[in-house]
Every structure is written in C-alpha cells, then in structure tokens.
Amino acid sequence: MSLNIGFRSPEQWEQLAKAHLDKGAFDYIQTGAGAEETLQANIDGFKQWKIVPRVMRDVSSVDVSTSIFGERASMPVSLAPVGFQTIIHPDGELAAAKAAAAQQVPYTVSTVSTYSMEEIAEAMGNAPRFFQLYWPSDDDIALSFIRRAEQNGFSAIFVTVDTPMLGWREQDKQNQYFPLRKGEGLGNYLTDPIFTEKTLASREGTEQTIAEVASRLFNRSLTWEKINWLRKQTKLPIVAKGIVHPEDAKLAVEVGLDGLVVSNHGGRQLDGSISSIEALPAVKEAVGNDIQILFDGGIRRGADIVKALALGADSILIGRLYAYGLINGQAGVMHVIAQLKEELETSLVLTGESSLASLQQATLVRAQK
Ligand code: FNR
C-alpha cells in the first residue's frame, strides 16, 4: 500500500476534512438530524456489544473476500451512496469510484452524484457498482434512471426508503447550506432524457433546473406497491435501503426484494430513531436467511464490522469514513479502504475466526450497564 499517506485513524481523517473544507460542506457531511441523538447512538450502539474471542484455533490463513449481489468483493464492504461528492474534492465520485475499483469493493452511485452515472461507470471499467435511487415524484424519470443503470453495468438498484423528505438538519439550516442549491449533484438529472424532455427549466438555466430537480427529487407517496411494480420492470437485484423495523424487513421479503440495508441514513433522517446496530438483531430474527442483509451506520473500525456480521449482517457499507478520505482524492479513499481491510483481518484473527461464515457465529455479549 504505497499511498504516501502514512497511518491515519478515522478521527484523524475527520479532523483533516474539517481543516480543509469550508464549514458548510464539512457540517453537511458530519452532522445529523435534530439533536443528533441517532447520529451519536449509531456510534455508541457498538459499545453496547462486546466480542468474546476464541483462542488457539489456527487462524494462520484468513479470508475476508465475499460476494455482494453476485459481485466479488475483497471484503464484506461497499461504499455507501453519498451525494454531492464534489463538495469534498473536485474529482468527487470519479475519484471515490476509482478507489473502490482499485480496492475491489463495490461503489454505490447516489441519485444526487455530481458526475453522471455514465461518467462514473466509464471511470470504473468493469468494476462492481450499484445505483441508489431516490425515487422521484415522477415514475417516468425513475424508470429512466433504472434503464440507464442497466445499460451502464450497474449490478443492483438500492431504493432508499427512509427519505420521503429530507430530515430536520439544524446545522445545515443555520449554515443555509444544501449542495443542490449550489448546483452540485445534478449529474444524473441533467443528462436524463426524460427529465430534460419534460422540463422546460432544464433548457432555461441553472436556477430553474435546480428548482425543478428539488421539486421532483423525493416522493412522499411511495408504498411497497411501487416496489412491486419496479420488480416487474427490471431483472436487476433490488435492495431497500433504510429498514429498521422488523415488520418492514418482512415486507421487503414478501415483495421479492433481493436485499435490504439496515440503516437510519447515518442519523440524518429521523432523529430519535433507533440506532442501526440496535435494530439489526430484530431484523435478522424476522427474516433469517430469506434476504441479503446489509448494514450501515457508525462503522468506523474493523471491530464494528465484526459485531455487525456477528449480529446477522452479510456485509456492511461505509459512508462518512470514506467521504473524509476523499479529501485526499482517490489516494485518500484507497487508503481508508485498505486500512479498514487490514484492520478487519486483524480483528478476525484475534476473534479466533478464519472465515466470514464462522465470524457470523462469533460470540457477542451485551455490555454490563
Ligand atoms: C449520505 N447518505 C445517503 N444515502 C442515500 O441513500 N443517498 C444519498 O445520496 C446519500 N447521501 C449522503 C451524503 C452524506 C454526506 C452522508 C454522510 C450520507 C447516507 C449513507 O448512504 C449511509 O446510509 C450513511 O452515511 C451510513 O452512516 P455512516 O457510515 O456515515 O456512519
């Protein structure tokens, strides 16, 4: 790993991002909704669980590689959809996606990426990628996004289900900061044939385009019926991102989804909601092995991955962790991923497990209060 960066802890990456970004951009990434109880709980939740390692089990060779929706991955980790990545680095999504490709972990393109999914796909070659859909208020645009994802080698669609509207983000309100308003994150809309055909604004100027995108970006009327409809429109695996209630997890199975992400959107949506790691056991209990279970929220270290897998996740996603690395462009994101993999392998060996399958059986106990 000759990335010329040296060792940096997750906290040091965060500090570096804070030092280099303007306040509006840094706060947009780092903060959560409301009083940030859920943001904090995502981190603290991991401390409620303790690993009880086994010893003397010949862990001379460990293998953390796996497959995620049919794609080989060097570890059970994908990069989560993070919008507007050009607020962190001018190369934005192109840099992060190339880093993911180089480190053999899937990259998830956000609906509100600044570069278009076509540009990102081209930068990635054949490397695995997923597309995240904020289901627009217009189904024709939703379908157009899906078709473009199919044509550009994306291997799963993550429908974000926890965002019928933006959460109550106090810091962004104080900073009067929303990247879309600055013209970031328009890549997929500006290049969409249906959007541009339907809206005069896209031909009139940036202000109008932004207003048109903002008015179409989220959809409060979504129900599982729409997912049922989508299921018939595409053969790509469909994943519901943002499940914390076990009954919703069961519904995801019932409508024939291929995966779900136990997630509260990194504490950015409903403040006061359950932390991701607290939600995971009940979701696992409800759906067992009927559906791939992914997890995100608060993952910063290898031991966090160990805990998430032991509590039932098949793989996890990282959000802020790599977003901070992006301050150093592609090399920074590669550094974060490589370091996380080394740390995961270390944690696996020290837990006394040599495969991910056995790790899923590892013993955890609740911390003493
Ligand atoms: C996000 N997240 C997100 N999710 C999504 O479905 N679409 C998106 O465009 C975005 N954008 C976004 C921007 C920023 C700056 C952050 C921090 C997060 C949520 C993301 O995919 C993931 O659920 C969380 O980031 C996971 O929590 P951690 O890893 O950041 O603690």
Keywords:
TIM Barrel, eight-stranded parallel beta sheet, two-stranded antiparallel ribbon, globular, binds ligand FNR
Largest sheet: 8 strands, parallel
According to CATH, what is the class?
A: Alpha Beta
Q: Please tell me the total number of domains.
A: 1
Outline, from the CA principal axes?
Answer: globular
Main β-sheet, spatial strand arrangement:
4-11-10-9-8-7-6-5
> Are any ligands bound, and if so which?
ligand FNR
Spans of 5+ residues with little confidence (pLDDT < 50)?
none
N-end to C-end Cα span? 41 Å
- Number of β-strand runs: 12
Please, could you describe this protein's structure?
The protein is an alpha/beta fold. The protein has a single domain (10-366), classed as Alpha-Beta Barrel (TIM Barrel). The chain contains 18 helices and twelve strands. It has helices at residues 10-20, 23-30, 37-47, 92-103, 117-124, 139-151, 170-175, 187-190, 193-198, 201-204, 206-216, 224-233, 246-254, 276-287, 302-310, 320-325, 329-351, 356-359, and strands at residues 49-51, 66-68, 71-73, 77-79, 107-109, 129-133, 157-160, 238-243, 259-262, 292-295, 315-318, 364-366. An eight-stranded parallel beta sheet has the order 4-11-10-9-8-7-6-5. Helix 13 (246-254) links the parallel strand 8 (238-243) and strand 9. Helix 4 (92-103) runs parallel beside helix 17 and helix 15 crosses helix 17 (329-351). Ligand FNR binds at residues 28-29, 42, 80-83, 110, 112, 132, 160, 241, 263, 265-266, 268, 296-299, 318-321, 323.
